[in-house]
Amino acid sequence: MSGFMRHAALTLAVLAAGTSAAAARPDLRQMTCAEAQQTVLRNGAVVFTTGPVTYDRFVANHSYCDRWEQAVPVTAATKDTPQCPVAYKCQEPVFDRFGWDD
């Protein structure tokens, strides 16, 4: 195998390994409440694994939501706290569809 081919194969292997690591989500259930909060504050928005087959996106503030969404405080289970106030979740506002607020 030529030097170029060997270099290309090594580069591809490194990229593939990096992609796998980057695709992995941090598991909220394995973090302390403080670690989860700091992770969101440090990154602004984080997708955490929240259960065996579930995940959710947590944001530090409204600036990480679409302009029509609201940042709503959310709690989740962490390693040390069943109802940790992790951060916020972006949600579309609930509109009064029936005119009950008139």
Number of E-state strands: 4
Mean pLDDT: 82
The poorly predicted ranges are 4-22
The biggest sheet amounts to: 2 strands, antiparallel
- Bin the strand percentage: 15-25%
Helix-strand pattern:
HHEEEE
Q: What is the helix content? A: 25-40%
Radius of gyration, Cα only, in angstroms?
Answer: 20 Å
Helix/strand class: alpha+beta
- Total of DSSP H or I helical runs spanning 4+ residues: 2
* Strands ordered across the widest β-sheet: 1-2
How far apart the termini lie comes to: 77 Å
Notes on the protein architecture:
With 102 residues, the chain is of the alpha+beta class. The protein is 31% helix and 25% strand. The protein is built from two helices and four strands. It has helices spanning 3-23, 33-43; strands at 45-49, 55-59, 70-76, 84-91. It has a two-stranded antiparallel ribbon. Strand 1 (45-49) and strand 2 form a beta hairpin. It is globular and about 40 Å long. The relative contact order is 0.16.
